[in-house]
C-alpha cells in the first residue's frame, strides 16, 4: 500500500508557525478553556481522574451529538480523535481494491490520498463557478458527477458545506446526489464539519436520513472553533458503527478523557447553539471588509462569496502555479495561504478570515504587493 504525502497538511505543519501572518487556517478564533467551563463546576472538572474514556465516546456525548441530527440515536454515533480520524476510519472501512472512490473537487484532499491507498482508484467530479440569478456561486457540475460515478464506484465523498469554496449544495443538488448514489448502490460519505458556520440563514440541512447508505462525518474543529479538543464523530447505521469500532480499536483506541467530558458539555443543545451563534457572529462580522477587499481588486481576483465557513476560495488571473505563488508569498512576505493545487484545482488561493481581522487584511495587502509585482 502506497500512502501519498498529504501536501496541504505537511505545508501547514512546516510553515504555519514560521510566518508572521498565517491565513491558512480554516476555522474561527478558538475558545479558551475558561470560556468553556464558565458556569460549570470547575473543581469537579479539575478532580477528573485521567483514565481511559469510553472508546466510542461516553454515552452522554453520543446522545447529545445524536440530537444534532434527525431521527438519530446514540448507537448511530462513534466518537473519534478529530474529523480527520472520522474520515480515515470510515474510508478504511468502506473502500477496497475492487471498488473506486468518487469525490468532489475542490476539496480537503484527505479522501483523495486514502482513495489511492485503499481503493482501486479515484474519480473526481467538480464544483464549478456559475452565475445564477445574477449571483456567482460554486455549484455541482451534474454531468461530471454522473460520469464519475460508475459501476465500480462503492463510495461517493461529498463535503457540504464545502472546503475550500464555502459553497452549500441546494435542495435540488442534494436530491441529485442521493439519486445517483442510490442508482449506483454506493455509500455516500458526507463531511459536514462546517455545518453550523453559515454566512446567512439557518443551519445547513444534513444529508443524514435521506438515504439508507449515508454516513456523515463531523467534529468540533471548524464550526465550533475547538480544534485543540480533537473531537470528531461518525453518524452511521448501527451495523456500520460496529465495523468502524473494530478498526478504531487499531488506531487511537479512545478520545482523551478531558476532551470527551468537555465535548459532552459543548454538545448540550443550548450550549451547542450558543457556540454556533458565536461562530456565525465572527464570520458575519469579518466577511464584509474581506469581501470588499477582494471585490475592489477584480483585475487580479475572481471572487465568489462563500455560503458557510470562515474560508474564501478565490481564483486569480496571473500565469503562475498556485504552489509556486504561495511559497514566494511565504518567503518574500511572510504570509501563508493555501494553494489551489493542494485542493484539487489551480490558479486559486484559499484564505481564512475567522481570526484577527486586522491581521487578515494586512496579510492580504502583502499578498497584493507580491501579485502586482508579477503582473
Short description:
The chain has helices at residues 7-15, 33-36, 42-46, 59-66, 82-94, 110-118, 142-148, 171-184, 238-248, 257-266, 269-295, 322-333, 357-373, and strands at 21-22, 77-80, 100-105, 122-132, 135-140, 153-159, 187-191, 214-219, 232-235, 301-302, 311-316, 335-336, 338-339, 348-352. With 375 residues, it is an alpha/beta fold.
The CATH superfamily of the largest domain appears as Type I PLP-dependent aspartate aminotransferase-like (Major domain)
| SSE sequence, one letter per element | HEHHHEHEHEEHEHEEEHHHEEHEEEH
Rounded radius of gyration (Å): 20 Å
Strand portion: 15-25%
Structural class: alpha/beta
Quaternary structure: single chain
Helical content (DSSP H or I, runs of 4+)? 25-40%
Strands ordered across the widest β-sheet: 2-9-8-7-6-3-4-5
Number of strands: 14
Largest sheet, if any?
8 strands, mixed
What does this structure look like?
This protein is of the alpha/beta class and 375 residues long. The chain folds into two domains: 7-32 and 272-373, Alpha-Beta Complex (Aspartate Aminotransferase, domain 1), CATH 3.90.1150; 50-268, Type I PLP-dependent aspartate aminotransferase-like (Major domain) (Aspartate Aminotransferase, domain 2, 3-Layer(aba) Sandwich). The protein contains 13 helices and 14 strands. The chain has helices spanning 7-15, 33-36, 42-46, 59-66, 82-94, 110-118, 142-148, 171-184, 238-248, 257-266, 269-295, 322-333, 357-373; strands at 21-22, 77-80, 100-105, 122-132, 135-140, 153-159, 187-191, 214-219, 232-235, 301-302, 311-316, 335-336, 338-339, 348-352. The strands form three sheets. An eight-stranded mixed beta sheet has the order 2-9-8-7-6-3-4-5, with helices on both faces. A four-stranded antiparallel beta sheet has the order 10-11-14-13. It is globular. The model has no long low-confidence stretch (mean pLDDT 96).
Amino acid at each position: 500500500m502506497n500512502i501519498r504525502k498529504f501536501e496541504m497538511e505537511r505545508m501547514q505543519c512546516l510553515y504555519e508557525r514560521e510566518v508572521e501572518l498565517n491565513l491558512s487556517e480554516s476555522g474561527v478564533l478558538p475558545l479558551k478553556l475558561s470560556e468553556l467551563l464558565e458556569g460549570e463546576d470547575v473543581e469537579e472538572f479539575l478532580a477528573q481522574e485521567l483514565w481511559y474514556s469510553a472508546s466510542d465516546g461516553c454515552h452522554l456525548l453520543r446522545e447529545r451529538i445524536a440530537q444534532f441530527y434527525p431521527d438519530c440515536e446514540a448507537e448511530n454515533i462513534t466518537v473519534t480523535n478529530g474529523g480527520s480520524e472520522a474520515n480515515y476510519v470510515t474510508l478504511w472501512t468502506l473502500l477496497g481494491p475492487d471498488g473506486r472512490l468518487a469525490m468532489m473537487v475542490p476539496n480537503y484532499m484527505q479522501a483523495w490520498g486514502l482513495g489511492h491507498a485503499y481503493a482501486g482508484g479515484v474519480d473526481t467530479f467538480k464544483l464549478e463557478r456559475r452565475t445564477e440569478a445574477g449571483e456567482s456561486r460554486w455549484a455541482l457540475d451534474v454531468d461530471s458527477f454522473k460520469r464519475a460515478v460508475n459501476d465500480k464506484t462503492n463510495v461517493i465523498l461529498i463535503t457540504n458545506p464545502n472546503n475550500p469554496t464555502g459553497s452549500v449544495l441546494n435542495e435540488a443538488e442534494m436530491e441529485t446526489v442521493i439519486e445517483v448514489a442510490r442508482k449506483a448502490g454506493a455509500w455516500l460519505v458526507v463531511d459536514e464539519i462546517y455545518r453550523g458556520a453559515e454566512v446567512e440563514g439557518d443551519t445547513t440541512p444534513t444529508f443524514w436520513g435521506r438515504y439508507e447508505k449515508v454516513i456523515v462525518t463531523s467534529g468540533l474543529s471548524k464550526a465550533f472553533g475547538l480544534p485543540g479538543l480533537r473531537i470528531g464523530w461518525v453518524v452511521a447505521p448501527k451495523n456500520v458503527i460496529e465495523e468502524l469500532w473494530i478498526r478504531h480499536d487499531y488506531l487511537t483506541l479512545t478520545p482523551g478523557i478531558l476532551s470527551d467530558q468537555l465535548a459532552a458539555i459543548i454538545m448540550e443543545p443550548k450550549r451547542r447553539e450558543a457556540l454556533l451563534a458565536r461562530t456565525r457572529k465572527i464570520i458575519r462580522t469579518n466577511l464584509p471588509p474581506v469581501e470588499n477587499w477582494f471585490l475592489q481588486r477584480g483585475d487580479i481576483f475572481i471572487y465568489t462569496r462563500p455560503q458557510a465557513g470562515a474560508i474564501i476560495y478565490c481564483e486569480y488571473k496571473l500565469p503562475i502555479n498556485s504552489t509556486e505563488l504561495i511559497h514566494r508569498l511565504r518567503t518574500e512576505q511572510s504570509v501563508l495561504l493555501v494553494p489551489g493545487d493542494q485542493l484539487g484545482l489551480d490558479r486559486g488561493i484559499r484564505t481564512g478570515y475567522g481570526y484577527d481581522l486586522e491581521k487578515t487584511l494586512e496579510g492580504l495587502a502583502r499578498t497584493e504587493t507580491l501579485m502586482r509585482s508579477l503582473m
